[in-house]
Amino acid sequence: MLVPLFTTVLFFASVSLGVNAGYPVIHRWFESRAKRDMARFEAWSNELFLAWPPEKLRRAAYAANLGVVFVGLFVLVLTGRVVFALAAAAAVFFVPTILYRRYKVKRLERLEEQLPDALSIMVSSARSGRSLPQALTAVGEKMSGPVEEEFKLMSREYHHGGMSLEGVLERAKARVNVESFKMVCSALIINANRGGDVLHILERMSESIRELQKLKKKLKTETAEVRAQEKIILVITPAFGLLICTFDADIPRLLFGTVPGNILLVIVAALQTIAVWWVRRIVRATI
Fold it and tell me: Global pTM?
């Protein structure tokens, strides 16, 4: 009677000592990771003009790190397989980066769509006798969304930052990874250095960009079938797996409870990833 009781007391005492000794180390590690993520999220917030306050950055950093831990532990308890727990934790770890890239792509696409209207405003400003910096300011005042943010930043850098017009355009060209936007900045930089008819340049650029956007829309329409295949590839394999698991109760045990089954799942996931990557590469090469 005393031996099991003594063993239990020793076990809980060892666990408590281990937790007390390991807590400062784990806490320091978690805080260091949270600080790194806060710095990363702050850079993303500034790049995307989100203007997140420090408290929101801290909450996002803590949520990202706690999500990795809790999702990994949940999958481990649910499946009992370390491989799946690590895979789930790794997937959650990359969620902030995926969301950032997706939002960035959507923002740049929106900026590209707004660019012809921004050039039309610049053309109207140039016709009324305003200078090029005044035309940039007019775009920031009359439009909204990504174009407003970028043109207001350029106007602030020129009027309040003490930068030259060429320097402002060079910074914008390096900051915004949109080919049509870079083309406009390059044309305006050449015009600022060598002189010329700004109104004529803006009109030609506006017409050219509108034609390019029409061509891109046409190409997207023609590649819609290929892009639909990507979604089918992502859905059909898991759906087929679930269908088979409902017909045979031993298949889930073989797939999730044995090493060969785990290897098969990893191979299927890798093939899915390669197929999606290949489809996207074909679409990107076409467009």
Answer: 0.75
